[in-house]
C-alpha cells in the first residue's frame, strides 16, 4: 500500500450527523427475524463464525458483508458501501431480511455498527481478547456462503484518514482480500474470535490506502463501547404505513398501523393493540405522523424514560395513549412468528 497523492476527502460533522440520522430514522421495521435450528451443528470455529456472517443490501443489490456480534446481535461492517444506500437491509443466513438502524460510526476508519429493527440474530462472534500480531494467521470470507480464505497480518501501517486524523496500526493483509470481502470479519482461525474488519480503499474513508485493509481490534472495541452508551428510545412496536381512506382508515391523512406489539415493550405496557385491524397512530404529542420516518424524527431527541402521548384511532374513536419510552433490550428478541400482545387494560374514555 502506498500513500495516494489525491486530495484528502473529509466528512463535515453536520454531514456525519445527517447520515447517521437518515439511516437510523428512515428505515422502519419489517417482519421479525427468526433463526431455525441448523440441521447440523458446525464443528469448527470458522464454520460457527460463518453462521454470523450477513449481507447488507439495498434495492440495487448487495453492498457489503457484515458480522453479528455475540450477545448484542449488532452488526459490524464497512461504512463506505452503505453510507449512500437506500432502504438498507440485512440478510441473515437463513435468507430472512430486516431493516437496520445505525448505532455508531467511526468515519475516520470507515466502519459502522448497525442494529436490526425487528429482532436480532442469535449466533455471533466474540471480540478477541488481544489484538493480532504481525505474521499471525487470519481468516476472512470472500463472499457470503463461501468457505473462509486464509492469509496473514503482513504488517501494520499508518495512514491519514478523514478529518486529517492519523490512523495508526491498520493491518496490511497478505494476500489482499477480494473487493467482495469488504465488511468481512477478520477471524482468528483457531478459535473464530474477531480480530478486525475488512474495509475498502477509498477517498471517502482513507487517504493513503490503495487496497483493502483491516481495521484493528482496538478500534472495533472503541466503537462497540460508544454504541453501548446509546440511549436511543424504543417503543416495542412494528408499524405499517397506511394511506387515508384505505380500508377502515377514517383519518384522511392516514397514519401508522400497529401491526406487532412486543409483549415486553413500552407499546404493550401502554395497552396498544396490534394486528391487521390494530390501532392507528395518527399523531405524537399533537404532531401528525404519516410515515415511520416521521415518527422516528419525533422521538429521536428523546431518551428512555420520557413519556409521549399517542393519538390513536381505535374502532372509530380517538384516544390519547401515554407511552413511556424504554431502552432497546440487548438480548435476542426474534421469534418465529409475531407474538400476541398481552391483554390490554381498560379502554380509555373516547374523546368527545
Topology:
Blueprint: H1 13-25, H2 45-50, E1 53-58, E2 61-68, E3 75-78, H3 80-83, E4 89-91, E5 97-106, E6 111-116, E7 137-140, E8 149-161, E9 166-174, E10 185-187, E11 194-199, E12 206-207, E13 213-216, H4 217-228, E14 233-234, E15 237-242, E16 255-261, H5 266-269, E17 280-284, E18 287-288, H6 292-299, E19 307-314, E20 317-324, E21 326-327
Explain what you see.
The protein is mainly beta. It folds into two domains: 1-229, Beta Barrel (Thrombin, subunit H); 233-327, Pdz3 Domain (Roll), CATH 2.30.42. The protein is 13% helix and 34% strand. It has a six-stranded antiparallel barrel with strand order 1-2-3-6-5-4. Strands 15, 16, 17, 18, 19 and 20 form a six-stranded antiparallel sheet that branches. Strands 7, 8, 9 and 12 form a four-stranded antiparallel sheet that branches. It is elongated and about 70 Å long.
